[in-house]
Amino acid sequence: MSPQTPSNSPGNYLTKFAMEQENRQWDRRECAVLVNIVFALKGIRRISSAQLRVLNISEGGLMATSRRLDIPDHFHISIGKAQYHIGCGVVARHNGGLHVRFIREQPTVFINVFASLLDPFALLEEIRPALYGLEGEV
Q1: Has residue 62 been placed in a domain?
Q2: What is the number of structural domains in the chain?
Q3: Residues of the chain where predicted confidence (pLDDT) is lower than 70
């Protein structure tokens, strides 16, 4: 089965932006980390949240799975207690997995620390930005 491209909101600027960055520039690092995501439903009338299980990550994007099937093509990853947000656009959906591009390239130090986490719940709790290479970002 071939990957499906997003169809929920083909005209959304976040999805277009993510699709324009389709060529992979960075190596993916394997991981098994949970992150919270937030997104709008029904226009902007309702904000919803979910969790993603990140399977691999790079400076430009990630691959993840979720139990929720209604995750839109654009959302924000919320790191820690809403301390750091990453804008995202889904570029493909395949076998229950989401192939996601970040709107902005993430710092290599942060991605290396993210991929090396042994506790899958570490990013759901309050973080110390200096430990994640996020000084000045948060």
Answers
A1: yes
A2: 1
A3: 1-24, 138
